[in-house]
Amino acid sequence: MTNTGSIVESESTVPMKTLCILCPASDVMNALLSNEESRTELSHCLLSCVNYKISESILRVTRHLIVKVSNYFYRTDLHVLVDILLRHVQDLEPKSKLRLDVFRTLLCVISKSNWADVGTYRIVDIVDTMEDLSVQSGYEDAARCVKLLRTWL
Questions:
Q1: pLDDT digits over 44-70, tens only?
Q2: What is the C-alpha to C-alpha distance for residues 143 and 133, in angstroms, rounded to an integer?
Q3: How far apart are CA 94 and CA 32, in angstroms?
C-alpha cells in the first residue's frame, strides 16, 4: 500500500490520479461501472478529489456518473458529497467559474441522483444556500430550485 496524502491506494488498483482524470465518454468508464469493486473505488476516488483536488473535470465526471447511473453513490457517500459541495459553494469566491460548476453539480445531485429517495439530506442547508445564491448573477436556477425544495419541507 502506498499513501498519497490522505488517500491510500493499493498496488493492484488503477492509481487514483488516473481515475480522477478519466474522460466520461471512454470505454474505461463503462468498464469501471460494470464491476462493483471498481465502482466503489471510483466513488471513493471522486469523493476524495471533489474534497481535496476539486476541478472542473472532476465535477464533470461526477455529474456524468450521476446522470448515467442515478443511484451511483451509496447513501453515506452521497451525504458526504452533499457536505463537500455545500462547503465549496459557500467557501469559493462568488464570481468563480469553479463555484458555478460546484453549484451545477449540487443541482445535479438534487435532481438526478437518488438524493430525494434517501431522505433529502441537509435540505434546509441546501435551501438556505440556494436562497443566498438566487440573488447573484449566474445562479438563476437557484430560485427555481428553492421553489421545488420548499415543497419537500
A1: 888 988 998 888 988 998 898 888 888
A2: 8
A3: 35
d(CA 148, CA 135): 17
pLDDT digits over 26-46, tens only?
Answer: 555 666 566 777 778 778 888
Residues 6+ apart with CB under 8 A from 57: 20, 21
SS3 labels along the chain? CEEECCEEECCCCCCHHHHHCCCCCCHHHHHHHHCHHHHHHHHHHHHHHHHHCCCHHHHHHHHHHHHHCCCCCCHHHHHHHHHHHHHHHHHCCCCCHHHHHHHHHHHHHHHHCCCHHHCCCCHHHHHHHHHHHHCCCCCHHHHHHHHHHHCCC
Cell triple for residue 34?
Answer: 460494470
Residue 120 has pLDDT above 50, yes or no: yes
- Are 50 and 85 in contact, with CB atoms under 8 Å apart? yes
Read off the C-alpha cell for 59. 465535477
